Amino acid sequence: MGCQELIRIEPMRLRDLDEVRNIERKSFATPWSYGAFLSELVENENAHYLVARCSEDVVGYVGLWVILDEGHITNVAVRPDMRNRGIGHMLLTAITALALKHGVWKMTLEVRKSNSRAQRLYQALGYRPAGVRPRYYVDNNEDAIIMWKELTDDDKERLGIGDRDQL
After folding, report:
1. Partners of 50 in beta bridges
2. SS3 for 84?
3. Which CATH number fits domain 3-105+151-165: 3.40.630.30, 1.10.10.10, 2.30.280.20, 3.30.710.10?
4. Which of 58, 72, 73, 118 has its CA 20 to 30 A from that of 144?
5. First CA to last CA across the chain, in angstroms?
6. Among all residues, which ones are annotated catalytic?
């Protein structure tokens, strides 16, 4: 039995930040700082972060900003040795359910133009390219593709979100 059967999705806690930062450093050329994550967790009332946990280890995370009826995926990453096991899909599905509970009906994110693997995952989840942010990434001036997804009542039903779940 692989770890995927044992993955739990939970809210990110302060105690998770060291593991989250380790994944962040291994995943991104310009990783967020400890302070940036700390600020998101304790100061940003519009921010929501989840972790994927295998046993007690954090193996992935995702962040969301809720602004009115829109959700912006701030970051998503899976520990390199745990990739290609569906954990990214699980995290994005869980954050979408959380977004719906907060009244979100449109989701957006940016992805590197060269990151075709991530783009395929986002497209499989219903995101569609909607524009480009030229030279968005400061490490190499790579463009970002802006992707959007419209959420529907069908998404609410599929994810088991009822009107009673509205916050």
Report:
1. 11, 62
2. coil
3. 3.40.630.30
4. 58
5. 37
6. 110, 122
pTM: 0.92
Tokens, residue 40: 């998101």
CA distance 45 to 66: 9
Closest CA to 16 of 39, 28, 43, 34: 34
- Of 8, 70, 66, 61, residue with least CA distance to 31: 61
